[in-house]
Specification:
This protein has 368 residues and is an alpha/beta fold. It is 43% helix and 23% strand. It is built from 14 helices and 15 strands. The strands form 3 sheets. A 10-stranded mixed beta sheet has the order 8-5-4-9-10-15-14-11-12-13, with helices on both faces. Helix 2 packs across helix 10 and helix 6 packs parallel to helix 8.
């Protein structure tokens, strides 16, 4: 087994890092320790097995989530599925159930309805429409939301009984609020490992509420989100064989690739790694070299994937993406997603937001 140095610290900090990593099941060795006076040792190397590098980087980058028990709310091993009781949100639940069964995780269905006294006269979903002046509208809206969630869960349970959906544990929650805000707030409190969201077809997203809800959750940039588009192919969604991976050419790519592999690494797949120019400018030669090093690492550590790399030097993502998709016919798009401030999101939407509106291919958007 090959060991690599993950950090060089003082003895005290090296011990703290070793404890943090060992609590997550990573074997750690300390080198260059002065055994006679260990407290004064400097330049202590923290070494781990190379295969554990992606997990170690994720732990180090998110130490607040892996700190001592009680200091933070632990991540719940749940998949959050926001629903609007449409057919496509049920398909998203089916995808989530398959992923949950493979990972031993439960599902949490979430529906948020808007207070009519805030929203006024509004069409909320295909099932719910209320006039603010209607007597008892507020209570009726809440009661109907609960009833529709019960019907949704009954349908899901029946599908499990028939064998159409893998058997998984699930729960449901109905709340009042703007859908995107409710999803983000709920995810911040419960910290699900994955959010699975159904989306409309690209021709409808710009005018349909659920499209904007998904875009807002993606723009928040804090959660791993899998989008399930309306043109639905369960086999391709669960077992993608042609994957497009957008690279930032930094260590975040390794974290994102590790997340992809944990979700969809049980089957062989071709992964096309593409670098889209951003704030960091690379020459064509330096980008090619960096992508080559990244693909070499990925070939050594993600054995079931075959990698090719493509450096792009234009920011016209529409035409570049369309050309690539025509050539490779992608089943899944993976985007390492940096959190951006509200001003940037408003005037310059991120790549995940743009592609959500542009294509009907499932996307895995990973916070880095």
């Amino acid at each position: 087994m090959r060991y690599i140095t993950i950090a060089i610290h003082t003895y005290e900090k090296a011990l703290s890092l070793r404890s943090l990593l060992e609590n997550e099941g990573i074997t750690v060795e300390l080198h260059n320790v002065n055994l006679e006076v260990p407290g004064f040792s400097s330049g202590v190397r923290v070494r781990i097995p190379e295969e554990d590098l992606p997990l170690a980087l994720r732990i180090i980058e998110n130490q607040e989530l892996f700190a001592q028990p009680g200091s933070q709310t632990p991540i719940e091993h749940k998949i959050l599925v926001p629903v609007d009781f449409s057919e496509n949100s049920f398909k998203a639940a089916v995808v989530a159930a398959n992923l949950g069964a493979n990972r031993g995780e439960s599902l949490q269905f979430l529906y948020s309805y808007i207070d009519p006294y805030i929203a006024g006269n509004i069409q909320l979903t295909n099932s719910l429409s209320y006039d603010v002046g209607e007597p008892g509208a507020r209570q009726a809206l809440g009661d109907n939301a609960v009833r529709l969630m019960t019907n949704f869960c009954d349908r899901f349970k029946s599908a499990m009984k028939r064998g159409d959906v893998p058997v998984v544990k699930y729960g449901s929650h109905v709340c009042e609020g703007v859908p995107e805000d409710s999803i983000i707030d709920f995810a911040k409190r419960k910290l699900p490992g994955l959010i699975v969201m159904g989306t409309r077809g690209s021709s409808k997203k710009e005018r349909d509420m659920i499209g904007s809800v998904t875009a807002e959750v993606l723009d928040e940039g804090r959660f791993t989100v899998l989008t399930v588009p309306e043109p639905f192919d369960l086999e391709k969604t669960l077992r993608p064989t042609n994957i497009l991976f957008f690279s930032n050419i930094d260590q975040d790519d390794i974290l994102a690739m590790d997340t992809l592999y944990r979700l969809f690494g049980s089957w062989q797949a071709n992964v096309t790694i593409v670098h889209m120019p951003g704030r960091k400018r690379y020459s064509h030669l330096s980008a090619s070299k960096a992508l080559g090093r990244l693909s070499d690492y990925c070939r050594d550590n993600f054995k079931r994937y075959h990698f090719v790399t493509i450096p792009l030097q234009e920011n016209n993502y529409d035409s570049e993406f369309d050309n690539l998709n025509e050539k490779y016919d992608f089943d899944l798009i993976v985007i390492p997603n940096h959190r951006r401030n509200a001003f940037s999101r408003l005037f310059n939407p991120g790549l995940a937001h743009k592609l959500l509106m542009h294509t009907d291919i499932p996307m895995l958007v990973i916070p880095v």
